[in-house]
Write a structure and sequence with these properties.
Length: about 130
């Protein structure tokens, strides 16, 4: 019997998987230069905190960062569910998922993840 594995990923996930994180952000260098120019233009109009919050929201706003039960950080697209998380960990985890806990509470498989949540996938074992 031969084992097979299928991965489903977005174009961005594929770029990171095939070429690494640097390839994903290489096109954003000009964007970072634009932010620097924008900061120089708006100096005095907003506090440092407001500027950092604005840049963080613009740069990371399309991602959600969650924790595994062991404290590892996992990076998923905004709107990702616990099902997406399970398959991101490993295809077998996704295939064997029977329930999920977020911050210690059972949630629906379609629960949308939010930043800083602790996600635990409950699986079944076939003997």
């Amino acid at each position: 019997m031969f084992a097979s594995e299928i991965e489903i990923r977005t174009a961005g996930m594929d770029l990171i998987a095939e070429r690494g994180i640097a390839a994903h952000y290489s096109g954003k260098i000009s964007w970072l230069n634009a932010i620097r120019e924008w900061q120089e233009e708006f100096v005095g109009n907003m506090s440092s905190r407001e500027f950092v919050e604005t840049v963080t929201r613009d740069l990371l706003g399309s991602r959600v960062f969650v924790f595994t039960p062991r404290g590892e950080i996992k990076n998923l697209p905004m709107g990702a569910t616990v099902i997406n998380y399970a398959y991101m960990i490993h295809i077998e985890i996704g295939n064997k998922m029977i329930a999920a806990k977020v911050n210690g509470n059972l949630v629906s498989p379609t629960h949308s993840l939010a930043n800083a949540e602790v996600v635990e996938i409950i699986t079944y074992n076939v003997s």
